[in-house]
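Protein modeling request. Please complete all fields; requests missing the sequence field cannot be processed.
Requester role: graduate student
Desired output: 3D structure, token encoding
Chains: 1
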Amino acid sequence: MKTNSIRKTNILGVTTVALMIVAAGCKSSDFGSDPSSGTISSSAALANNKALASAISMSVYNSGGGAAIYSDSQGAGQTLQMTVGQNYVYEVDATNLAAGATATISFLDTDVIGATATSYSITPGVQKAIAAPSPGGDYLLTLQVNSGGNVAQKSYQAAIGCVNPNFTQASLIPTGISVTAGSATNLYNYSAAGVISNPANYLCGFDLAGTGILSTKYVTCDTPLTNVYVSDVGYRKVAVMVKDQCNNSLSVTAPGSGIDLAYNVPAMGTEVPYIYGVVSTTNINDPRVNGVTYLSTNNNVASPVQSNYGGGAFSITSEYSYSTMKNGQPSSVPFGMTLTLRGITGSVNLAAKSNNVSFTGMYLDAATFSTDQSADVSGQITLQSASGTNNCTATHLGGKVLNSPGTPCYPGTTGDNNAATVEVWGDYTCKMSGSYGTATVTGSFDGIYHMADSCIGGGGGGGGGVTPIAF
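Delivered output (471 residues):
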């Protein structure tokens, strides 16, 4: 027997409203809920496809009949939860579709890398029974409709469980979450082995920085994560989502003020690139922004802090995505900070190993702060300090140029790979805003930009261009 209810839950700090379809004796609260959303296929008739996407509607019933246990008409933010092997009846509304419209329902196991989707044809307006797939797990359910030559689809998140769960919230141990320092700044080691007895029998996913969203794919709970790059540091409410063999999910969060992701801010002007910032004031009630201490440095695992110069702007960008991790979430997007400075004058003569660069007129022109996202819970938050509005102030600004003697180019080419490194640094405060609200970020930075002569006749050398190079 199934019961339907509208349930408001708070999962790792993120509040969602989801329609829960729960089998008797089977509890599940997934890591957020995936609202069904129209995804428009590629077509010359883009406008028609958009209209079709908004017209698609599906309902799902228990095989024994009765009221729909799921319907698009009940609104977005619903999670479809089913039991392995049990039949469910699907119906695609044909009211707004052309005569002869066709549809396909497919299931893709997102817990399995490289899995192949299983598809079923369904005629709009005609009910069809389909058994929930096996094994249990997280599935992407996709409904694709072809109506009058226009194609559009909707996607839903489905959690396939079994009848007899084998753990409860009380069996989870918050103090069992462990985080230790890795081999360099911004690197940490994570363990969930102490979260539950017999950890090898469960799967665990990590919210690495207490942002309220899942950062990693699931691994067995006795599998540690080593040298994971994390840029939201300090005390963070690190959390773990635990799954049992029935695909029931429960979350556990580090107690008290969280776990200290200890960090050290590099000294300015020491040729160590970094961006550091503390969100001191904000009207955005989101753990990805509110109270965040951000630090990004380069190390032996990742080098997200990069600088560039062009068009009179010296930019320092630090962006990192958990999707680049060995076990990271594919839905993660690049997030971090960008600072843009202007007012550097003079030039560098690489061949003569000399320069007359001046940093006295340098100023911080603009800044951007962006967060990670969860495709099924929270969209990315982007905050900007607009250029030229004086929303950024900087102090203790400094810079220097380090010239390096070159080495002869390889045979077949001429020239020397003379090089120079331009380094800038300073403290800053920026007022930022975006569609989610406003925030003030205060911190420091160090950016390094490398230039090198080009070899003639065969390329290679670094792309410094013709000397002298003007700023």
